[in-house]
Amino acid sequence: MFKIKKTGVYIPEGILDNEYFTKIVETNDEWIRTRTGIKTRHIAEEKMYEMAGKAARVVTADINVDDIDLIVVSTITPEYYFPSTACLVAKEIGAKNARCFDVSAACAGFNYALDIVSRYNYKNALVISSEKLTGIVDYTDRTTCVLFGDGAAAVLLEPDSTAPYGSFLGADADGAMCIYAEQNGGKLIQNGKEVYKFATKILPLCVEKACENVGWSVSEIDWVIPHQANLRIIETAAKNLNVDLSKFIVTIEDYGNTSSSSIPIALNEGIVSGRIKRGDKVCLVGFGSGLVYGANLFVY
Fold it and tell me: What burial letters (b/e) apply to 251-286, b meaning 16+ CB within 10 Å?
């Protein structure tokens, strides 16, 4: 369906380490690390769409932006009801020939966006996730404020009719209000216990169903890149899936939960570090508010 030509990220310079939170809520470094796996997270001064534009520039540095004919942005933290963040990114990078729209599917947003683009006709497509979650975090709630950070990531795609691709997407709407934030200044609210139970069950199911849809076995997958919500979720899901944790790309220690940006940030890190190589079979798997879920299987 597609080939990933290039990946790139924009990580804000500001850093909040665990020590910062000991000064504002009742917590400590050990409590945060043992329960979440997080040591640091990044905080942005710039707007979310500006982060998206910076990530887009990384992956378009070597091409003529006039050749980009599709831009899709996943975000749950837009600055504007309209226009779409994708249109703002197109303006930022000067892409005058692109169709532009946004996707709102919470922490599975990149999975949904990638699947949508796989069904489009295009020459060069940008799929971007950008999130400024620190703007909606309640810093008086110790159960959530330590979890979230900011960041953006982008992938540049070209069509490839010979490339294998499989996906599995869905939603359990009965749990829609397990994670939410109201408009007009509302803060993020999460039922952590319910999210944990959901995530540890749905992550393995998504991988297995996506494999069925493309005709692969789970054992054929070289790399699993999960949404970076909580290290314990990833460890439990890996055990339930019967896949060694060494096959999972895990970046939560450095970035925290960046919602839909977490998967493409981890994908980029796996590629840049040399772990993910051309020809590897990769599974991206996300879950989040909605309660939405999704997995994408492809060959890098």
Answer: bbebbbbbbbbbbbbbbbbbbeeeebeeeebbbbbb
